[in-house]
Amino acid sequence: MKNGICVAGNAIIDILYPIERYPGKGELTTITEGIMQATGGAMCNVIMDLARLDPALPLTAIGRIGNDPEGKVIMEELAKFPNISTDQMVYEGKTSFTAVMCENDTKQRTFFQYRGANAQLCEEDFDWSRIDCKILHIGYILLLDTLDEEDGEYGTKMAKLLHNAKASGIKTSIDVVSETGGRFARLVPPALRYTDYCIINEIEAQNATGIPLRTEDDALVRENLEKALRRLFEMGVSTWAVIHSPEGGFGMDADGNYIELPSLVLPKGYIKGTVGAGDAFCSGVLYGAYEGRSLEDAIRLGIASAACSLSREGSTEGMRTAKEAIELYGSMSGK
What we know:
Blueprint: E1 5-9, E2 12-19, E3 36-40, H1 42-53, E4 59-62, E5 64-65, H2 69-78, E6 84-85, E7 90-91, E8 96-103, E9 109-114, E10 135-141, E11 150-151, E12 155-156, H3 157-167, E13 171-176, H4 183-192, E14 197-201, H5 202-209, H6 225-234, E15 240-245, E16 248-253, E17 258-262, H7 277-291, H8 295-310, H9 322-333
Parallel strand pairs: 1-4, 1-10, 2-8, 4-6, 5-7, 10-13, 13-14, 14-15
Antiparallel strand pairs: 2-3, 8-9, 11-12, 15-16, 16-17
GO molecular function, one term: kinase activity
Protein name: Kinase, PfkB family
GO cellular component, one term: cytosol
């Protein structure tokens, strides 16, 4: 019987720069004190969050990093968790990095990404005979160049990878990077045809489905959320479609049941950073799926996990055990 979760995809070093404000073109802004370096990317964030949610959960990491100081930092961080296996990591090229500009007041982030070794992650890096897991989570689509390439039979190489995972008896889960432009329509739909759990934010869902979820003045279009989730199922998602936003978590199961839970109202000064909050939400939902929890309980754990993440500046340092995360949720929600 397959056991554990395999997390694959982007392994990145984030360099976080606190700034007074994001400048316009040709303008200057000030980088303030507090520059820090941390691991980032879907693989690093999600697998370390899962390791903290359940220290006994078997986890397998699959990704590409360089044989360089940045790659060494990633491996040192993963090695802190006894339940994470890194035996299937690949060393080649230069480790990917992202310069993250974070406004001090709003905590709004802007990313400048160097693809590096991540761009070469491919299906040959996945030995299905060695991967013992119940769920494969991979991200981010649109940021893994080789897997984003066209495939004549499946649409994209990512879609082929997901198909082969399912053929090996593994449930699949995907995440997408927030990006504007026409690549969503070309790269995301093929993958959704082989996706069991789709866990994405409202901008990514809007781009994938074509259904507006934000107005021009940045208000959430709540009446369209159920439509977007239903559309994700029409595009191929089989089990759960989940959308997260600052306002809350929204989901639908295969029977068409719609779930909506609001985000926690956090005390003033609680939020220390927003880097990794989306991955934390994803981790909570993914763990709920692995444990066989209801969609509602999984979304609640996702919201609790995101709240834990927001309490620290780094991507994963704020995460707690699943029990502690739900206790935090209860203390802040009164439920």
